[in-house]
Write a structure and sequence with these properties.
The chain contains 5 helices and 23 strands. It is of the alpha+beta class and 369 residues long.
Length: 369
């Protein structure tokens, strides 16, 4: 009897340990339909149009920033240190070459004038001694070497006058106006784009001192654009680009590519492209613009009615007919607007393809179902 019970219990354990009996039922995979494939009740209510063709050169539009031409930008500095007593210009002012910008009271000028006056007095004494030595030499009262010493003293005195006079000119003063005030004038004509000095401010020498002013000639400016690495074949040295301004949408300027920086920005993989643009007076430093570069070869692209393009989620889409009365939504890359209420398609569609004339109406119908 015990043997029968033991066999019965062993049979139950083997039956409970069967892995097939404990396995979960097999999963059922349900395939989802194509999200871009739609079906409507009456497809004939959505008229179709045939994509045309348009020949145009490829275009590349990038953003840029207006910068002053470095070769036309000049700093205003003072070699004399001191304190500003008068200031006659400020940032944003348009100045002419030679215009007075500010006045500085400087002890450097006083010291330079003192050295100059001492040099003049020493030269006068050396000249008198030279004349006396010449007279004595002619009468045989002194040797020739004494005359040569007097001549050397006179020559050295003249050098001191020349040196101290040149120092006064470098400091911004003049020997004919002995004063401690230095006048600082504009070195070129242009616009003051930077100012680092105010009235009664102290002015240091060039060591670790910023420019008093920075003047830029804005008759010609630079526009620096960022062009991605894969778009570099579309820009070439010497070619021109159209400049579009947000502030003046009806004005289109032209700029010549004067430089393509040979180093890419490692963070965003772009190269700096510099355009030189004559400024008609509306370009301002720091202004954002859009530069359009035009390719050299012509390309054939599709054209569709503007209403056939659906702008959804920052992308462009069109609907094309599919089998069994369905429509398929295709992503395309839109181009420029063309006359006749047409839209250029850069990629995603070819001439001769059929598209739904009004994509927005079809999209709304699909969403309401």
């Amino acid at each position: 009897m015990c043997l029968v019970l033991m066999l019965a219990s062993c049979g139950k354990k083997d039956e409970a340990a069967d892995p097939k009996a404990e396995a979960p039922p097999p999963a059922k995979v349900e395939k989802e339909g194509d999200a871009n494939l739609v079906k409507v009740d009456h497809p004939d209510q959505f008229p179709l149009a045939t994509a045309g063709q348009h020949s145009a050169a490829p275009e590349l539009s990038v953003t840029g920033v207006v910068n002053p031409d470095v070769s036309r930008t000049v700093p205003v500095v003072s070699l004399a240190s001191g304190r500003v007593v008068e200031i006659h210009a400020r940032i944003g002012d348009e100045v002419k070459k030679g215009q007075l910008l500010l006045k500085i009271r400087s002890s450097d000028i006083s010291s330079a004038f003192a050295d100059y006056r001492k040099a003049v007095v020493n030269e006068q004494l050396a000249k008198v001694q030279l004349d006396r030595s010449k007279t004595l030499f002619e009468k045989g009262a002194i040797a020739k070497k004494d005359l040569e010493v007097a001549q050397t003293a006179e020559d050295n005195a003249l050098v001191d006058i020349e040196t101290t006079s040149e120092r006064l000119k470098l400091l911004g003063s003049d020997t004919s106006h002995p004063t401690g005030i230095v006048d600082v004038f504009a070195p070129i004509s242009g616009v003051i784009i930077e100012q680092n000095v105010t009235a009664s401010a102290g002015v240091k020498t060039l060591d670790n001192s910023p420019n008093l002013f920075t003047i830029a000639d804005l008759s010609t400016v630079w526009i620096v654009c960022d062009v991605f690495e894969n778009d570099m074949p579309n820009v070439r040295m010497g070619e021109y680009a159209d400049i579009h301004l947000t502030a003046y949408p009806n004005r289109v300027l032209r700029g010549r590519i004067s430089n393509i920086l040979p180093v890419l920005d490692p963070a965003i993989r772009t190269a700096k492209v510099r355009l030189e643009v004559p400024n008609p007076g509306i370009l301002r430093v720091g202004m954002f613009v859009t530069a359009t570069f035009h390719g050299q070869s012509q390309e054939t692209r599709a054209t569709v009615p503007a209403t056939a393009v659906l702008h959804l989620h920052d992308r462009d889409w069109v609907y094309v007919p599919a089998d069994n009365g369905q429509f398929r939504r295709l992503e395309v890359v839109g181009g420029i607007s063309l006359p006749g209420n047409l839209q250029e398609i850069v990629s995603g569609l070819k001439p001769g393809d059929r598209v739904v004339t009004n994509a927005l109406v079809l999209q709304n119908t699909v969403e309401q179902q």
